[in-house]
Amino acid sequence: MSGEAMVEVVAGVIRDKTGRILLARRTEGRDLAGLWEFPGGKREPGETPEGALARELHEELGIDIDCGAPLIAVPQRYPHKRLRLDVRHVAAWRGTVKGHEGQALAWVPPHLLASYAMPSADIPVVAALLQPDRYLVTPAPDLSDATWLDALEHALANGVRRVQLRAPDSEPRRWHTLVDAAVDACRRHDVDVLVNGDIDLAREFDIGVHLRAAQLPALASRPLPADRRVAASCHTLAEIREAERIGCDFIVVGAVAGTPTHPGATPLGWAGFAALREDTALPIYAIGGLGEQELDIARAHGAQGIAAIRAFWPGTP
Questions:
Q1: Which reaction is recorded as catalysed by this protein (predicted)?
Q2: Looking at the structure, do residues 138 and 122 belong to the same domain, yes or no?
Q3: Which end of the chain is less congested by CB atoms within 10 angstroms, N or C?
């Protein structure tokens, strides 16, 4: 199966004047019939992605479009095929939307997209539309708690919207006090916050938890309710399957590139990352020697975005 040619598929994020997003239902007789997807279709030989999307949306919906910026490209393996779903924003469209191939259509408010049953390649697209593309992992606090909290405030003010509070080997009482202050800061900035590894601490502060890969096999089920994020660090497909089993909301995969903190580790590279991306529908952050300048390439390989310490923590070399 791994040597099978990958089918290139393009799809568009089409919005109406109220911000609702168009979904199309796959018709009977097609594979994955009945599931909802972002409209589009197969890219033919010699076509550009933009040209293919314009043709497909004209044929399927009867509209003419101006193709906008790339959103995400998701490589995905199905039992009967491999595909790469290249999703673009539709900057503008003209005409009357109609299902010219008999497909049902739905204009969906963004916050309800996740309630529609979708093919596995489309699920990360919803996360890319709605969730942060940067995931800050905090460094261990230095000698000054105030300095650490000030750096966190600067990161939040600079646009970080998802944070993992992590402080290996920090003294428990000190860490509890820092988490209390950090959670307050994140809530003031309306930022999604998780704590590394400590499920009890997550429950105490009513926040999410980011699990270490070694914790996953011991958990019989999801450790927090649905309204609290559960994430995990994964390095192998077996670990990803464990994250799926307990109902993680997203995962972090790496290291994609070499890092000073793991000088002896062999990095995955983007090809290795994409190979793991093919086998899960979970949103995935890429980690390991990456910064904001890699966000576009990360999205082109199916990543939700970048997770990092140095790239997002002020004053870190």
A1: 8-oxo-dGTP + H2O = 8-oxo-dGMP + diphosphate + H(+); 8-oxo-GTP + H2O = 8-oxo-GMP + diphosphate + H(+)
A2: no
A3: C
Q: Could you tell me the residue range of the domain that residue 115 belongs to?
A: 6-126
Q: What is the CATH number of the domain that holds 272?
A: 3.20.20.70
Tell me, what DSSP letter sits at residue 85? E
Residues 181 and 149 sit within 8 Å (Cβ to Cβ): yes
Q: Tell me how far apart the alpha carbons of residues 183 and 193 are, in angstroms, rounded to a whole number.
A: 7
Q: Is residue 120 located within the same domain as residue 144?
A: no
How many independent structural domains does the chain possess?
A: 2
Q: For residue range 156-192, what is the model confidence (pLDDT) as tens digits? A: 999 999 999 999 888 999 999 999 999 999 999 999 9
Report, in this order, helix, strand and coil percent for the chain, each rounded to 5. Answer: 30, 30, 40
> Tokens for 6?
């990958």
| Cα–Cα distance for residue pair 142/73, rounded to 1 Å | 39
109 with 141, same domain?
no
Q: Which two tokens stand for residue 228?
A: 């609290």
- Tell me how far apart the alpha carbons of residues 208 and 230 are, in angstroms, rounded to a whole number: 6
Q: Write out the H or E segment, with its range, that includes residue 10.
A: strand 6-13
Largest Cα separation within the chain, whole Å, is: 65
Task: Compute the C-alpha angle 90/292/213, nearest 5°.
Answer: 100
Final residue of a domain: which of 75, 97, 126?
A: 126
Band (317; pLDDT cuts 50, 70, 90)? low
Cα separation, 276 vs 272, in Å, equals 7
**Which structure tokens are listed for 297?**
């390439």
Last residue within a domain, chosen from 108, 126, 144: 126
φ/ψ of 243, rounded to 5, equals -65, -40
Contact present, 281 and 123 (Cβ < 8 Å)? yes
pTM, two decimal places:
0.94
- DSSP 8-state code for residue 51: H
Q: Taking Cα atoms as reference points, which of 193, 196, 173, 197 lies closest to residue 184?
A: 193
